Here is the input.
Amino acid sequence: MGLTFDFCHAAGACDIKYIARGETEHLLTGGQDATVGIRSLENHQVKELVKELNSEHDDGVNVIAVSPKNDKFATGSSDREVRVFKYPEFALDSDVKIRFTLPVRALAFSADGAALAAGGDDSCVRVVNASDGSHIRTINVEPSCAVRSIAFDPTGEYLAVCTVDGTVNIWSLSTEEHICALKKIAPKVDVIDNLLNRIAWHPDGSLLAIPAEDKGVILYERDCWEAEASRLSPPSLSKVSLFAWSPNGLYAVIADADMNLHLYDMKKQQALDRHKMDCLACGISWHPSANIISIIGDEGAFAVWNDVVPDHLPPPGQPIDEIDNSYFNSEAVEDEPPRRRHPIDNLAEEDDFDSEPARGADDEDDFEAAAAPSPSRPFTNERVRLPEPLEEQPPIHQGATPLTDGASRRFLTYNTIGSITSRKDTEFNVLE
Here is the structure.
């Protein structure tokens, strides 16, 4: 059954977020009519539009961020300003205001809710105190490039920033040191493109998910930036715009450039479901505790996806420590002693992502899947590293031929018995 969309904002960049504090919970939407729609929830379901909040912006709302404390939320706009509102009062916090010279495209609160980072077409990220708006630091992106998305490390150690040229930069929050630049690994986009290049940390901070330049998603293990931990690139997945981990990190929803929504079990490496949309997703938000996702598209309409994860699997909002061990050991190797496995233990076996299990005969998109995932290998803490390219073999005989421009083959030695040659093959040198 497909998703039902309801129009809530003018067409263009939009965003959507759940916010909940105690028994009070709402769904927030923002769009190009410069308002924030506030919808009440009853039993986690959208009940009614209770208010259209004047966002205090003079132009469209491009992005919304909710504090992990659920005591405030921020809006970023094309009017070059960031505004912060208190929750559940929905009152403007006049102490916190960030100004830029160009439109704001990205917002993020730190894991403790103490800091707010904002960025956009100005090619910099400004970090302020979320309580009083005092300046903490300004990070200039080099080379100068518009900011597309921002993600705070859940452990509070790093800040990751993706720019429109597809580069992801990572900074240390404690030392302000630039850790690394993963150059042009994400799609190159225009500043006004609705393809968002949204990067996302796993809830425990163990992995960073980045849209791949060609298609799919690249997963990097923290502190191991020189090599991919895994790549999610099944045939059904095109260029990725949004990647959203479930609250417990067991699942992910991915929105691609072909207007598809994909649901994955990240532990078992299985595609669980897929929905075809009539618009490009601009925002995805998991409910913090219920098995529900809300989506908003670039036509200004939103939809609610209920019962996202099948009943036989752990709910997306259930804490890892409360999930029965049988789920994590369901693919354990014979004779291996039972143990609690990390939800992303098997990501190194990336080939399994190429198969997708069937949804059912009634699916209008003929969503089919291939083989079941291969059995798990024994758990290991070793990091996955790619082999270093071999250096070119130097000549081993005085009669060796020199390597000339444009030549792909050279003789290293030659006599009446035979010869040894060196041949360039893409990134490696082959001896024959």
